[in-house]
Each structure stands twice: as C-alpha cells, then as structure tokens.
Amino acid sequence: MLIPNILMWSAATIAAAWKLSQLARAPHDRGLRVVTICTFLVFVALSAQLAVTIPGVADEAPAQSPKLIQNVILTFFFALLIVLLQSSATPTTVGTRGWFEIVIAVLTGGALVVTFAVSTPGDRGAAYEQAGENPEVLAFYLIGNAYMSYATARGAYLAWTCSNHTRSRARLGLRVAAAGLAVNCLGTHLPRVLSTSGRLVFEKDPIPGTATWTTPILTIGIVAFFLGIGYPGARTGIVKARLWFEMRRHYRQLRPLWEALYSQFPSIALFPPTRSRREAFLVRNVRLRYYRRVIEIRDGLVCLSPYIAEPVDSTKSIDQQAELIRAGLARSAEGNQVSVTSVIAAPGAAGMEADSQQLLALSRAFSRTASTDAPPAPADLASSAD
Q1: I want to staple 210 with a disulfide (CB 3.0 to 4.6 A). Which of 128, 195, 277, 290 is the partner?
Q2: pTM
Q3: Which residues does 240 contact at the CB level (< 8 Å), separation at least 6?
Q4: CA-based nearest residue to 145, from 99, 184, 98, 193
C-alpha cells in the first residue's frame, strides 16, 4: 500500500505548497486562509500516514503515534472544511452549525485517543490492513471511518450545493471535489464501517476484502478532491502561462524593427539593450519589457518621421510601410532629412493593444523584407548586456 499512500501524499504536498504560496501573496484573504489551513492539515495527516507505512520509520515512532495523529488531524480538517462550505452554502446557519461541527470533531478525536490508549502496545496503531479481529483496533477504525463517512457525505453535499450558487468557473471545481468526497464516502469509509462493525459485533466480516480494494478507491477520491480544489487556480495559471508565452513571442518578434530604429536613434532605449542570445532566455519582467519595447519603437518612428519621403497612410500596405521605413533609415544614416512628416503604422483604434498589434505586423513585414543594404547595427548594440 506504499504506492497509493505516496500518491495521496504527493497530491496533498502540491496542494499545500500551492495554497501557502497564494497565502503569502494575499495574507489577509480569510477564505484563502481557511482553505490553506485545511490543505496543510491534510498534508500533515497524510505525512503521518506515510510515515507509518515506510519500513523502519514506523518502528521509531513512539507507540505508533503517527496513525493517531493522522486520524485526529483529519477530523479537524473536515470540521474546518464543512464550516467553510457551510459559510458559502447557507451563511445564516454557519454560527450554530460551525460549533456543532467542532464539537463532533472534538468528541471523535477524544474517542480515537481513548481507543488508541487502551489498545495493547503490540497492536496499538496497527494499519487497517492489520486490524484483524482485535477489538480495540477495530473500534479505533470504526470510530474514525464512521466520522469520515459523515464528514465526506456532508462535505460532498455542501460542495455540490455551493457549486449551484456560483456562476464562475469554480463551479466545475466544486463539483469535482464533491465527486471525490462522494467516492471516498461510498467506496471507502462506509464499506470499512460495515466491515469493522460486523467483525466487532458479530465476529464476521459482511464485506470481505475491504483492506485490499478500499485503499485504491480512497486514493482516487483524494486526488479528485484536490483536483477540484485546485482547478480554478490551475486554470488561471494555465491562462497566465499562455499569455506569458504569447507576450514573450511578441517581444522577440518586435526585435528586428526595434534593433533597426535603435541603430539610428540610441536615445529611444531607456536601458542598455540585451544581446539577442540572452534575450532568448528571458524569464522575468516579460510584460514590462514588451510594453517598453512598444513605446521605444513608437518613439523611434517619431524620430524617423522627418526622413520619410512620402506620407504614410492607411492606403499603403504594411509591406510598403516597411519599405518606406527601410528607405527612411538609409536617409537617416546619411543625414538626408526631408520636410514631409507622417505617422508611421498608425493604429486603427485607440489603446496600447491596437498600437502594439500594428507594430507587430510592421516588425514582421520589416523582417520579411530585410535587404543587404540595411543599416548596420552599431558595435555597442552587439556587445552590450543587461
């Protein structure tokens, strides 16, 4: 059972680390604080469970206490989770109902401690698979799974109810989390309650094999639960990553036009330029660099405007405008200023986005029409660094 425990622990570790990083950025978000506490409690509980299953580690723990710690922590995790979901589903009843959930968790935790303490040292803290017919161990797991049956059933109901009250993309995440809790309730905890109670009362297992097939189902339910919790944030992260890659690509596509303008008008750059090879590995401040490059290109086109021989308007294609820019750069290198001024690559609408899209199209056209007589870049452009 080591592999399912490792999978559950890995999911809890990723979720806890992610929520802690979010809380570090928004420490005053009360809802996020509660969710972070919940995920951290699950991480601690599953860490204790993993410690019990690792050969040699469990023997070093005092009286197999990790198993007790795991179960007690899980009761308080679900109490917090139910209170959090209750506050979203029916805020008017959260006060009374919240105290009720805490009391149930405290009573369950106390009962677990008592049954753990009265167990013989040799059987104390034994895994569910080794419970056998030992009354104290069976009572320990009966109490724990009875509470977990209630908690997962109520948590699934509240999560589904909350999903019906939200119109955001969190609806799907809440329903996946509810499905994960329902899987744990019906596929793991209820069968274990029936199995342990039957062995404890009638000395006969009404549902044989629960020690074998319920653990994989528990793993599936826990992974589904964490996927549901993490879905909205993961989706946001994917969108942000896609925008980052898109902006980084656009930043690189603007370089040919920016480089040509910088070669004639170095004053447009606020900071020394980055080498092309180093630019390929840019990771930080991509958005800032991109918009700074857009502004610098627009400044460069303003400086180039007196060297354009004919007016540039919407009647000229983007390729024709690129050729006019190339000719204007040649005149600028010779100092041959003409009197006509014009707006080059005028955006079709107001706003930075329209301006940047127009400049991107111009830079692509400029790169396509590159010729051997293009103005050479000065030495400092090729050798300068950040």
Answers
A1: 195
A2: 0.58
A3: none
A4: 193
